[in-house]
Amino acid sequence: MNNRRLIIPPVSLPILVVIFILFLLVFLLFSSIVMAAFAKLGIPPQVAYALFLFALLGSFINIPIAEETSYEPVIRVGEVRFFGIPYPVPYFDWEERKVIIAINVGGALVPLSIVIYELLRLVYLGQFGLLFNTLLAVTIAALFSHAIAKPVKGLGIAMPLFLPPLMALILALLLGDGNPPLVAYVSGTMGVLIGADLMNWRKIKNLGAPMVSIGGAGTFDGIFLAGLIAVLLA
User: H-type helices in the chain, by residue range?
Assistant: First the structure.
């Protein structure tokens, strides 16, 4: 009888157990950080945990919102015959490409829904001075994010991770008006969304990807993390 095993696991069982435990610890740590940030915004724990799970699961969902057309130069090979002998002749041509622009549920829509809720709550409470300061902070943060964001072909919109949260923290300290965490979260989130993504809309279609997702990295995207880090620092 042949006792050789036909299926060999990539790693041993103890290593799998260690990987699972590490993954669980990272998940618990990250969820605790998110819950702490949401608590500083005054969001109830049950709602905060539901938002975290929705953001986590929504990281795998991209909703198409637009389709753009781009033209890229390509090299084609034609054929020329000389005295009946074919010769390949390369030449430049333009190729039309369709680029689908989508928005990620976990990385963009969930933070955006929190921002809208916080702004509407300011209107409901009649805190128009804080509302004005928040919108002013968003404007400054968006211009700052646009200045440091760089479209990278084949990659997306690249920017330093910690600069937008630090700018949001400074704006929160200057314009917080008694509620720095709110100003930090809104300006950090919307600053990246508007400044890095929306203000570079025309450049997105030339990044050389068939689909570009706003907030596509989910809970690890700059939009989600900028607001999160900013509110923790505040």
Answer: 13-40, 45-58, 110-125, 128-148, 163-175, 180-192, 201-204, 222-233
